[in-house]
Amino acid sequence: MAMMISETRKAAEAPADHENRFNRIDAELTMLKWMVGFGIALNIAILTRLFFP
Asked: Is the pTM above the cut of 0.70?
């Protein structure tokens, strides 16, 4: 009986673990999107000041 409860608990924890990983990856992707956007905006600002003084 204890073996069955242990297996059931592990089966229930598996999707929760995946959900946690997906949330972390999603947060990292959001941060990377902001970083890339900021870098592109900075490059455009520098090039604009360089070519159109």
From this structure: no
